[in-house]
Amino acid sequence: MSASAQVxxxxxxxxxxxPRHVAVVMDGNGRWARQRFMPRFFGHKAxxxxxxxxxxxxxxxxxxxxxxxxxxxxxxKRPSEEVSGLMSLVLVAVSKYLTKLAGDGVRIRIVGxxxxxxxKLRQAWAQAEELTxxxxxxxxxxxxxxxxxxxxxxxxxxxxAEGVAPADFDEAYLSSRMSLAFAPDPDLFxxxxxxxxxxxxxxxxxxxxxxxxxxCLWPDFGTAExxxxxxxxxxxxxRFGAIRPPVVVDGD
Length: 252
Ligand code: IPE
Ligand code: IPE
Ligand code: MG
Hints:
This protein is of the alpha/beta class. The chain has helices spanning 29-35, 40-60, 80-103, 119-132, 148-161, 171-177, 223-235, and strands at residues 6-8, 21-25, 65-72, 106-111, 138-146, 188-191, 210-213, 247-249. The protein is globular, with a radius of gyration of 20 Å.
């Protein structure tokens, strides 16, 4: 160590500039439509367009995985017209945007309970996954009929079916059976629409995610909001329960 060695403030070395995995609760479509005196469905449609824009913006900034909450296990409680509207919107969105997303280098994965959706929708999901499986610019995981508690339960069911011994059942085992086992845990968890809750999204995986809440309604979530979220993330000091000793750097 030279005489001019300096001490870098704790945490500086731990700042990863760009999150590898971003999870987003895309909330606020209904309010966005209401502000325009339009039906809620209008907001959901604008929400799909916002998602297609956001995937490319996150990819341009070096994010490798984007997981978005599109329909929760609890969203079945909504009026049946809204639920069926959302189901048809997804089919329309796949036919409208799949070719574009595939061409943009996006790999699509669907996570959630597929057993409750229509055959048509299951086929559309399978087609989207198949067509984009070799893409590597960014992975877009769409959480549909997904719930964090459902995910833990389905992972435990797999473990039980595999007859795992209690002593072999640990965090790594459970993680490997979760629906997002193909991705690292999310570094950054964003929720638009002003609510500060997780609403049953990625409960297991978000244990050490950095949280970012914004009033911005999802259809308005564009370049400025994405850059603000990534900028906030870059300022965070992630310690994962440890304490960070000062890092000593040699001067010249
Ligand atoms: C999120 O927007 C989209 C879905 C849950 C499908 P909302 O529909 O929850 O919009 P708000 O929260 O009522 O504004
Ligand atoms: C969370 O939003 C689910 C999705 C964005 C798909 P909600 O609007 O359903 O959440 P709550 O009801 O406000 O908690
Ligand atoms: Mg909402």
